[in-house]
Automatic annotation (TrEMBL):
UniProt protein name: Aspartyl/glutamyl-tRNA(Asn/Gln) amidotransferase subunit B
Job of this protein: Allows the formation of correctly charged Asn-tRNA(Asn) or Gln-tRNA(Gln) through the transamidation of misacylated Asp-tRNA(Asn) or Glu-tRNA(Gln) in organisms which lack either or both of asparaginyl-tRNA or glutaminyl-tRNA synthetases. The reaction takes place in the presence of glutamine and ATP through an activated phospho-Asp-tRNA(Asn) or phospho-Glu-tRNA(Gln).
Quaternary structure, from the entry: Heterotrimer of A, B and C subunits.
GO molecular function: asparaginyl-tRNA synthase (glutamine-hydrolyzing) activity; ATP binding; glutaminyl-tRNA synthase (glutamine-hydrolyzing) activity; transferase activity
Species name: Spirosoma linguale (strain ATCC 33905 / DSM 74 / LMG 10896 / Claus 1)
C-alpha cells in the first residue's frame, strides 16, 4: 500500500516524478475490430460474441476499415506521422478474459508515431499557470480483452466476453510528464479530442476511456530514468491525479528508508487512496510478439489518407481562435464554449440567426448550461432549440421584453417546446411596457411610497436610483422598459 505523507517538504523537494501515461480509447465503430459482432456497451453478458471473438479453431479475422480511419484521425489531430504500412502482431499472454490466448495488437510499427498535445497546467509550488506540450511516443491499434467480474459469485470469477474484440487505440506518451496536474490536464485534452473527432465517447465510468500510469522518481537535476511502477484501475481523471501523487510519495519514502523500488504493476483503490502490488511488470520478451499469420498488412494509400484528412472536423484550438476573433468573445467564454463539441456547435447555430454574440454566450453559459447534464449534452438534448434562443435574444435586443422578463420566457419555453418566445411573452403579459403615461404613474406611486429615500437621493445619495427602478419593475411585474423607467425617474427627481 502507499505510504502516508510523513516526509518533510524539504525532503520531497529533492525529488521529481517522471510520469508516462497509457490511455486506451474504445473506438465508436458499429462492429468489432476483427469480427462483425456488435460493438455496444450495456448488452446482456456474452451476447455480442461470435466464433471469431471466442477464437474457435479455423476462424479468420478481418480488419475493420473504420477502426483504421479513427486511429488516423487521432494521429492527425495530434500532429503524428502516419505509418503507411501496418502489420498486426500477436501479443501472447494467458488470462481468462482473453479467449484466444493472445491479443491482436501492433508491436514494432504503430499506426501513428510522434506528435503531442498542448496542455495548460499549474505549478504545484507557486500556483502559476503555464503551457507545455505532452509528447506522444506512439498510438497503436489493438483489440480489447473481455471483462472479469470478481464480485458476481462467491466462489468463482465470472467472464463477459462482450468487450473482447472491441477496437482500441492506445496512446503512449513519452516519460515527459512531471506533475499530477499535467497528467490530469493531458487526459482531459485527450477526452475532449476524441469527442470532437467522434471516435470515442470518452466515458471513463463505462470504461471506454481508461488510463494506466507509469511513475518513477529521480533526484532533481538528474537525467537518468528510475525504476518505473505501473498503476492500473484508474476510472477517473481525479483518480489518475491521486494515484500519481500517492505513488510519488510511496517511492520517495521507500527510497529514503533504504528500500528498493521494484518494477511492478499495482492497482489503485479509489475508496481508500491506497495502491497494492498485483504482479511484477512483464517485459516485451514475456509477450513473445510475432506477426499474425491470418492478417495481411494494411497499406494506407495517398487517396485513403487524403479522404480521412478531408473529413477532419474543426478542432478545439482552431474553434477557440474563431470564437475570440470572429465572434469577439473573451478568452474565458471561448474556453468554456469550446470545452465540449456539442456546446460549440450549439453556440454557432444560435449565432447563425442573431448578431449579439456575447449575449448568446451569456445565455449558454448561464440558463442553458444550468439545464444540461452529461447525458443530455452528449445526446445534444438542449432545453431550447438554437432558433428559439436566437429569437428570444433578438426580442431583448429589440426592446420587446426586458432581460428579467426574458428569463421567465426562457423557463416557459422549456415546458412549451412548440410555442414561440413571442407567443409565450404575450400570453403571460411579459411584453415590455413602453407606455410613457402608464409608466409615469408607476414611477410617481413608487416615489410617493418612499418619501424619505427621495429626500436622501436629492441630498446626494444617487445610488438609491437602483432601488426606485427595482420597485417600478416589481409593480410592472417585470414588463416595464428599464431604460424608459430610468429616464422618467431622472426627470421627476
Amino acid at each position: 500500500m502507499i505510504a502516508e505523507a510523513t516526509l518533510s517538504p524539504e525532503v520531497l523537494s529533492q525529488y521529481e516524478a517522471v510520469i508516462g501515461l497509457e490511455v486506451h480509447c474504445q473506438l465508436l465503430t458499429q462492429s468489432k475490430i476483427f469480427a462483425s459482432d456488435t460493438n455496444a456497451f450495456g448488452a446482456e453478458p456474452n451476447t455480442n460474441i461470435s466464433v471469431i471473438t471466442l477464437g474457435h479453431p479455423g476462424t479468420l479475422p478481418k480488419l475493420n476499415r473504420k477502426a483504421v480511419d479513427y486511429a488516423v484521425r487521432m494521429g492527425l489531430a495530434c500532429g503524428s506521422t502516419i505509418t503507411r504500412h501496418n502489420v498486426f502482431a500477436r501479443k501472447n499472454y494467458f488470462y481468462p478474459d482473453l479467449p484466444k490466448g493472445y491479443q491482436l495488437s501492433q508491436d514494432k510499427g504503430p499506426i501513428c508515431v510522434g506528435g503531442g498535445i498542448l496542455v495548460k497546467a499549474k505549478d504545484p509550488v507557486t500556483g502559476q499557470s503555464y503551457q507545455t506540450t505532452i509528447q506522444i511516443h506512439h498510438i497503436h491499434l489493438e483489440e480489447d480483452a473481455g471483462k472479469s467480474i470478481h464480485d458476481g459469485d462467491q466462489w468463482a470469477t465470472q467472464l463477459d466476453y462482450n468487450r473482447a474484440g472491441t477496437p482500441l487505440i492506445e496512446m503512449v506518451t513519452d516519460p515527459c510528464i512531471r506533475t499530477a496536474d499535467e497528467a490530469g490536464q493531458y487526459l482531459t485534452e485527450v477526452r475532449r479530442l476524441v469527442r470532437y473527432l467522434d471516435i470515442c465517447d470518452g466515458n471513463m465510468e463505462e470504461g471506454s476511456l481508461r488510463c494506466d500510469v507509469n511513475v518513477s522518481i529521480r533526484p532533481k537535476g538528474a537525467t537518468h530514468l528510475g525504476t518505473k511502477v505501473e498503476v492500473k484501475n484508474l476510472n477517473s481523471i481525479r483518480n489518475v491525479m491521486r494515484a500519481v501523487d500517492s505513488e510519488f510519495l510511496r517511492q520517495v519514502e521507500l527510497t529514503e528508508s533504504g528500500g528498493r523500488i521494484t518494477q511492478e504493476t499495482r492497482t489503485f483503490d479509489a475508496a481508500t487512496g491506497l495502491s497494492y502490488a498485483m504482479r511484477e511488470k512483464e517485459t516485451m520478451n514475456d509477450y513473445r510478439y510475432f506477426p499474425d499469420p491470418d492478417l495481411t498488412p494494411v497499406v494506407i494509400s495517398d487517396a485513403w489518407l487524403a479522404d480521412i484528412q478531408a473529413q477532419m472536423p474543426i478542432l478545439p484550438a482552431e474553434l477557440y481562435l474563431k470564437f475570440t476573433s470572429v465572434y469577439g468573445l473573451p478568452e474565458y467564454d471561448a474556453a468554456l464554449l469550446t470545452d465540449a463539441k456539442e456546446l460549440a456547435e450549439y453556440y454557432e447555430a444560435v449565432c447563425a440567426t442573431t448578431s449579439n454574440y456575447k449575449a448568446v454566450s451569456n445565455w449558454i453559459m448561464g440558463p442553458v448550461k444550468g439545464q444540461l447534464n452529461e447525458k443530455t449534452l452528449r445526446e445534444r438534448q438542449f432545453p431550447v432549440s438554437a432558433e428559439r434562443l436566437a429569437a428570444l435574444i433578438n426580442m431583448v435586443d429589440g426592446g420587446v421584453v426586458s432581460q428579467t422578463a426574458a428569463q421567465q420566457v426562457f423557463a416557459l419555453m422549456i415546458d412549451q417546446p412548440d410555442a414561440t418566445p413571442e407567443a409565450i411573452a404575450k400570453a403571460n403579459g411579459l411584453v415590455q411596457n413602453r407606455n410613457t403615461d402608464a409608466l409615469q404613474t408607476l414611477v410617481e406611486e413608487v416615489l410617493a411610497a418612499w418619501p424619505d429615500k427621495v429626500e436622501q437621493y436629492r441630498k446626494g445619495k444617487k445610488n438609491l436610483l437602483g432601488l426606485f427602478v427595482g420597485e417600478v419593475m416589481k409593480k410592472s411585474k417585470g414588463s416595464a422598459d428599464p431604460k424608459l423607467v430610468n429616464e422618467l425617474l431622472a426627470k421627476i427627481l
